[in-house]
Design a protein that fits this description.
mainly alpha
Length: about 60
């Protein structure tokens, strides 16, 4: 954010545009999406050895 001074030397109040708010929200949701992905990967990594199931190539 940039603060601009007026002609009299005072500082204008900071404002956020809709685009700034939307992009900030999008990045927060993007980062939050990694938690379920990490949880599922952890369950897969722990579940495969405990069940005896293995992932092997077909050919």
């Amino acid at each position: 954010m940039q603060m601009r001074g007026s002609a009299t030397g005072g500082a204008a109040p900071q404002t956020r545009t809709m685009l700034d708010t939307d992009s900030r929200t999008a990045w927060q949701l993007f980062h939050l999406n990694w938690f379920p992905i990490l949880g599922m990967a952890t369950l897969l990594a722990l579940g495969l050895p405990s069940t005896g199931l293995s992932l092997e190539p077909v050919a």
